[in-house]
Write a structure and sequence with these properties.
CATH class of the largest domain in chain B: Alpha Beta
Shape of chain B: elongated
Number of domains of chain A: 1
Oligomer: heterodimer
Largest sheet of chain A: 6 strands, mixed
CATH superfamily of chain A: CheA-289, Domain 4
CATH class of chain A: Mainly Beta
Structural class of chain B: alpha+beta
Chain lengths: 147, 673
């Protein structure tokens, strides 16, 4: 019997030259860059906290988390707000503009090394035409941050 | 039927009832003759039986049923209350408590059988003196058959007679083959209630409803109408053979002290109906019940949500204040002021809803002290005051364990053995005082014992043994600081390790817990006379007054209640002692904490300047000067947590949202001193 074919939607964003995807069900919203309050003594990849309609949300710089070179903040910079169970965090990304549907047959397991991203954070590689999209395991990323 | 939806209600209500039961049992122990308490216990057992029966928990049902039997026997004077019976009743309570928690945790009753407790309850019933068993309770032929009335019922009768009403015992006999006994009984009740008030029924109304009676039952009726009329009415109901009226009389001189001023008022106002009187007369337990009827059970999440919304409102109010003062528009300013008054009242109101009297925590202690003093064979009385003091719910939930710990400590370590007390010319009976009161913006809870106090030398010795301090440190320590050693992790002075205390997880846990609630613990010690632990807790955790300061280009909030004063310090007066910057202030040495450096702030202005702004902050009786760049002002802030993700961040207690929507961090001053 063939495995059932189903599709999942992913929010696609860019960091450096790679495209990444996050399961849309984890994404609460996407915000433009806003002023943050630095949190002293927090991990280096935490850029600070923001006020999201009265809720204090920590924001993570994914570039720092993935050991990518620091980027310039510009008009395209976005904060993707993701929620895993009772933890809500923001992720700073270069740009985010589309949602893509990827069928499970087009997703391959993670190769040994993908750029600088820790393999444990990757759920698979999605092939959309010629594009290769790194699908992130957001649950792992968020829970791994929360030390 | 799906019972799950009722399970939560069942558990919550049962727990409430058990808590009441606990109190009543303690009351019964000191006051074995008090009918009111007995009735209350009976009522709780009965309610629990009914609830557990509905939910299908047979263990609880059968135990409470047997409890009822025993209690009934006590009520009827067949069995005397003594310590062993109270002990058994306490055992029942423990069993019920366990069962309910196990139902709450696993959905199943605890598998331990209640058989042994039921057996001991049965034992109580069997042991009753033979002579009393023989006493004929119901004698059908006797015309003046006595209806047993308790004190409360006697009072009703007396009152009714005083008002010229008739009180009758009405015995109703049904035909032998009556098919719908309870239905007939119901009609009798209804008919009788048209003419007066029924205040007692034999057998009980519930039993009559369940047809648990033979062909006759008796009701006690207060009425203004002539006996004959009612009799005729009742006899006209079909399937009723006979209705017999007997006057109930109560000796007037037995009138007891219960009836006092209130009573006189009643006499003046004769138009009051009997039902009103009952209410006025029924004493404590009934009054409480009526009050309970007015409450609504609300999920705490909903309250939290409400609280969040109020917080939002306060934030936006602060923002409007800013806009109002900028715009110089009179109308605007007035409107904002009005808004401020409303939000403040709203905030108070919501906080009130979240406030719970500390009684909820306190009322488990009498039992605990009772058990502990039995276990340790020390005579200990616990005095409690200020149970009505209210605290935020979140605090109430957390404060129980630390208090248990302190009380156990007081009893186990503090209060001496009886012989030793007598030798030291103290009364053999030790006392533990538990007090709660509100002091300004905080609530103070004190645990005081009249035991031997803390032996400073022994504390020091222990601390050296455990490697917490060195011998030379110990010599320098004054008494106050030595007592502080008790709160160090891994410290426990008990020579004998008992299962009560002295497991080495002692007071440091208490201290950590209290500090996590933004509170402080202090100790007052007087050797040979006892010790006193003082816990000071903030009234509310959610909204506080704070001082906003800037450091570099960042804004921080310092809770106002920890600030002693604000000073300017000349940089040249700062000295360096043992690598620590200090300054002499009011004849005491103040350590300097440069917030900018501690918090890794960039571009701190104050670093190079001559005049420094210092916020002097206190922690217990220690002070420190926090250097900031400038002061913004005092503001009401709503405390928000940084969330799980950033939990445990050093030096930061939380965050708040300022009027302009920016987030400012709240400084955890305790960790910086």
């Amino acid at each position: 019997m063939e495995a059932a074919v189903y599709t999942k939607q992913f929010v696609i964003f860019r960091l450096e030259n790679e495209e990444y995807g996050i399961d849309i069900l984890r994404v609460k919203e996407i915000k433009e860059m806003m002023r943050m309050t630095r949190v002293p003594k927090a991990a280096h990849f935490v850029c600070g906290v923001i006020n999201l309609r009265g809720e204090i949300i920590p924001v993570i710089d994914l570039r720092k988390k993935f050991n990518l070179p620091d980027g310039e903040e510009n008009n395209n910079t976005r904060i993707i707000i993701v929620a895993v169970d009772d933890i809500t965090v923001g992720l700073v990304v270069d740009t985010s503009s589309e949602v893509i549907e990827i069928s499970n047959s087009a997703i391959e397991g993670a190769p040994e090394v993908v750029g600088n991203v820790d393999q444990g954070f990757i759920y698979g590689i999605g092939k959309v035409g010629e594009r290769l999209i790194i699908l992130l395991d957001i649950v792992k990323i968020v829970t791994n941050f929360a030390v | 039927m799906d019972m799950n939806q009722y399970l939560e209600i069942f558990i919550e209500e049962s727990q409430e009832h058990l808590q009441g039961l606990n109190q009543s049992l303690l009351g019964l122990e000191t006051n074995p003759k008090d009918m009111k308490i007995l009735n209350e216990i009976f009522r709780v057992a009965h309610t629990l039986k009914g609830m557990a029966g509905t939910m299908g928990y047979t263990g609880v049902t059968s135990l409470t049923h047997q409890m009822e039997n025993v209690l009934d026997a006590i009520r009827n004077g067949k069995v005397e209350v003594n310590t062993s019976i109270v002990d058994i009743l306490f055992e029942c309570l423990d069993y019920l408590d366990n069962s309910i928690s196990s139902i709450a945790n696993t959905g199943q009753e605890s598998s331990n059988k209640a058989d042994s407790i039921i057996a001991s309850l049965n034992g109580v019933l069997l042991k009753k003196p033979a002579a009393e068993v023989e006493q004929p309770v119901i004698n059908n032929d006797s015309k003046n058959e006595i209806m047993k009335l308790n004190q409360y019922e006697e009072n009703i009768v007396r009152k009714a007679v005083q008002q010229g009403m008739g009180v009758y015992k009405v015995k109703v006999m049904l035909v032998n083959d009556c098919m719908l006994k309870s239905a007939r009984a119901f009609i009798v009740f209804q008919t009788a209630e048209r003419y007066g008030e029924i205040f007692k029924a034999i057998p009980k109304v519930e039993d009559i409803e369940d047809e648990k009676f033979d062909n006759e039952f008796t009701i006690a009726l207060i009425t203004k109408e002539p006996e004959a009329l009612i009799k005729k009415e009742l006899e006209s109901i079909s399937e009723i053979i006979e209705v017999r009226f007997d006057k109930i009389e109560v000796s007037a001189e037995e009138e007891n002290t219960n009836i006092d001023v209130e009573d006189q008022e009643l006499q003046e106002d004769n138009s009051l109906k009997p039902s009103n009187e009952e209410k006025d007369n029924s004493g404590d337990s009934q009054g409480k019940k009526a009050k309970m009827g007015k409450t609504v059970r609300v999920d705490i999440d909903r309250l939290d949500n409400l609280m969040n919304l109020v917080s939002e409102l306060i934030i936006i109010k602060t923002r409007l204040e800013g806009v109002g003062s900028d715009s110089n528009n009179q109308d605007m300013t007035e409107a904002v002021e009005y808004l401020e008054r409303i939000t403040t009242s709203l905030h108070d109101a919501v906080m009130k809803v979240r406030m719970v009297p500390i009684e909820r925590v306190f009322n488990r202690f009498p039992r605990m002290v009772r058990d502990l003093s039995k276990d340790l064979s020390k005579d200990i009385s616990l005095y409690m005051s200020g149970e009505e003091t209210e605290l935020d719910r979140t605090v109430i939930d957390e404060i129980g364990d630390p208090l248990i710990h302190l009380i156990r400590n007081a009893i186990d370590h503090g209060i001496e053995e009886k012989e030793e007390r007598v030798k030291n010319k103290k009364s053999a009976n030790g006392t533990v005082n538990l007090r709660a009161y509100q002091d300004g913006n905080s609530v103070v809870i004190e645990v005081e014992d009249d035991g031997k106090g803390i032996d400073i030398e022994r504390v020091k010795k222990k601390a050296i043994e455990k490697g917490i301090i060195s011998q030379s440190d110990a010599n320098e320590l004054d008494e106050k600081n030595a007592v502080e050693l008790l709160f160090k992790p891994g410290f426990s002075t008990a020579d004998k390790v008992s299962d009560l205390s002295g497991r080495g997880v002692g007071l440091d846990v208490v201290k950590t817990k209290i500090e996590s609630l933004n509170g402080i613990v202090e100790v007052e010690n007087s050797k040979g006379k006892g010790s006193k632990f003082i816990i000071r807790l903030p009234l509310t955790l959610a909204i506080i007054q704070a001082l906003l300061v800037t450091i570099g280009d960042e804004k921080y909030a310092i809770p106002l209640n920890v600030i002693r004063d604000i000073n300017t310090i000349n940089a040249s007066t700062i000295r360096n002692v043992h690598g620590q910057d200090v300054v002499l202030n009011r004849n005491s040495v103040l350590p300097i904490v440069r917030l900018g450096r501690m918090l890794d702030v960039k571009n701190v202005e104050s670093d190079g300047s001559e005049e420094l702004t210092a916020v002097v902050v206190k922690k217990g009786d220690k002070n420190a000067a926090f250097i900031v760049d400038s002061l913004i002002g005092q503001q009401e802030i709503v405390i928000k947590t940084l969330g799980k993700f950033l939990s445990g961040i050093k030096y930061i207690a939380g965050a708040t949202i300022l009027g302009d929507g920016q987030v400012a961090l709240i400084i955890d001053t305790n960790s910086l001193i």
